[in-house]
Design brief:
With 174 residues, this protein is of the alpha+beta class. It is built from six helices and eight strands. This is Peptide methionine sulfoxide reductase MsrA.
Length: 174
């Protein structure tokens, strides 16, 4: 099993897609990349902690290739816009990848290079060494599964799920 820590805007979006991905055994929404100990949602949203909203995606490489997990990441958010994803604005929504090893850092950098051709402007995804990962509050875990009819899910997450189904249908569980 392998775990990637990825930030692509609101963690609810990445969580929703990766929860439905074959070979993914766990998705934990959380915070990392900042300087403030034991952050919570409100402190992270203040923009003062330096943390990003992220997901820790644990998957089986024998079921889904790590490159596919990363390519999905770049398809599910706009990695060319710093500190913003749609209506979500602030450093906590930055496109980010947090590596645990030098090998993982190289893998992330290759994924950026591979996916750059899909975008008209440069990818600005931050690649940083992982620090402490703080799981988000229970309310944020499995948000889409618990609240599929919520407005945010209908307007923001459902289109991302549709895009994932279009390009990665062989990897998604309906």
């Amino acid at each position: 099993m392998k775990t990637f820590i990825l930030g692509g805007g609101c963690f609810w979006c990445l969580d929703a897609v990766y929860q439905k991905t074959r070979g993914v055994s766990s998705v934990v929404s959380g915070y990392t990349g900042g300087h403030f100990p034991d952050p919570d949602y409100y402190s992270v949203c203040s923009g003062m902690t330096g943390h990003a909203e992220v997901v820790a995606v644990t998957f089986d490489e024998e079921v889904i290739p790590q490159e596919t997990v990363l390519d999905m990441f770049f398809a599910l958010h706009d990695p060319t816009t710093p500190n913003r994803q749609g209506y979500d604005v602030g450093t906590q929504y930055r496109s980010s990848m947090f590596y645990l090893t030098d090998e993982e850092k190289e893998l992330f950098e290759r994924a950026i290079e591979r996916n750059q051709s899909l975008w008209n402007t440069p990818i600005v995804t931050e690649v940083s060494r992982a620090g402490t990962f703080y799981p988000a509050e229970d309310f944020h875990q499995d948000y889409y599964a618990k609240n599929p009819d919520a407005g945010y899910c209908s307007v923001i997450i459902n289109p991302k799920l549709a895009k994932a189904r279009k390009y990665y249908s062989q990897w998604l569980i309906s």
